[in-house]
Amino acid sequence: MSPDITILGIESSCDDTAAAIIQNGKLLANVVAGQSIHKEYGGVVPELASRAHQKNIVPVVNSALKKAGISKQQLSAIAFTRGPGLIGSLLVGTSFAKGLSLALAIPLIEVNHMQAHVLAHFISDEAGAKHPSFPFLCLTVSGGHTQIILVKDYLGMKVLGETTDDAAGEAFDKAAKIIGLPYPGGPLIDKLAQTGNPESFKFPHPNLPALNFSFSGLKTSFLYFINEKQKHNPDFILNNTNDLAASFQKTVVDILMAKLKQASGQTGIIQIALAGGVAANTGLRAALKNQALLANWNIYIPAFEYCTDNAAMIAMTGYYKFQKAEFCDQNITALAGYAL
């Protein structure tokens, strides 16, 4: 009988310190420590984030090992997020992973954060879980990235289109800030949109070539629209908050879905997956389900805890890379920009 493959995954790309244990492809533990301090500043402060990671990483890893019932000596390898992300935050996770790998004399596995978001679809803590089959398209949408990825196999991926400026998640947060909502604003936009009229206000759609996205123009248009309305009615936002949220969300979702439909048409692929933090958005999920009925798509949406940043997806990626012996050495460095 072959020995167990037990992977410790470490995620520290932004403001969540996370650790997870996957053994033979099954999730045993997934621990995340968030950072509430950024709410005071209306966004993530890199220096504060890296300091919090230094404080959290040891207890988070210890908690994951304890929950999994695994000792450090049982680990086969350590997988960590190399990038992309905030360099200070990434350095904490990278340094910790390198040190523990050296101390335990076990392999080190570097992971691309965006590849891991895609492979979140293969995380399983129960038998018979539904996973996409290859090849499939994955719309990966988060605060820092918006991409359409052709997934050929676990470790073979190609970016078909991506944002040329702001990501969709960032656009949600900025729109929320414009109408006075606290950080993080994306989930609040989603909540308010559920009781608003998405047809109340119209905002422009960018006309980009191929399968690329752009959200900076939409964000600017939304700001100018609000400023103009408030000149005539200082209570405009107060009187229309839910409708503004619904209309803005519909615009973002329509932009995303238009490119996704175009990608499916060009490739002929009807296996469609969502990934990233914005995959938790109810408007996007509803639009995808509706399109699946119209176009006979087979769709896959991960559980909420695997949409946002987590270490389970890092450990899962590490598990597949371990089987291919894709290890790195101690000279590895974190990368703020790390293309898929």
How does this structure look, described?
By secondary structure, the protein is α/β, with parallel strands linked by helices. The protein has 2 domains: 6-123 and 307-323, 2-Layer Sandwich (Nucleotidyltransferase, domain 5); 136-301, 2-Layer Sandwich (Nucleotidyltransferase, domain 5). Helix content is 43%, strand content 18%. The chain has 10 helices and 10 strands. The protein has helices spanning 46-68, 87-104, 113-119, 168-178, 186-193, 216-232, 236-267, 282-295, 304-307, 312-323; strands at 6-11, 17-23, 26-33, 77-83, 108-112, 136-141, 146-153, 156-162, 271-275, 298-300. The strands form 2 sheets. It has a 5-stranded mixed beta sheet with strand order 3-2-1-4-5, with helices on both faces. A hairpin with a 2-residue loop joins strand 2 and strand 3. Helix 1 runs parallel beside helix 2 and helix 4 (168-178) packs parallel to helix 6 (216-232). The radius of gyration is 21 Å and the shape is globular. The two termini are 35 Å apart. The model has no long low-confidence stretch (mean pLDDT 93).
CATH superfamily of the largest domain: ATPase, nucleotide binding domain
Q: Beta fraction of the residues?
A: 15-25%
Q: Distance between the terminal alpha carbons, to the nearest Å?
A: 35 Å
Shape, per Cα inertia axes: globular
Gyration radius over CA? 21 Å
Category from helices, strands and their pairing: alpha/beta
Stated plainly, the CATH topology of the largest domain is called: Nucleotidyltransferase, domain 5
What's the helical proportion of residues? 40-55%
- What is the mean pLDDT? 93
| Strand and helix order | EEEHEHEHEEEHHHHEHEHH
The helix tally amounts to 10
Largest sheet: 5 strands, mixed
Instruction: Describe the strand arrangement of the main beta sheet, using strand numbers.
Output: 3-2-1-4-5
CATH architecture of the largest domain: 2-Layer Sandwich
Our count of domains comes out at: 2
CATH class of the largest domain: Alpha Beta
- The quaternary structure here is single chain
Number of strands: 10
- Are there runs of 5+ residues with pLDDT below 50, and where? none
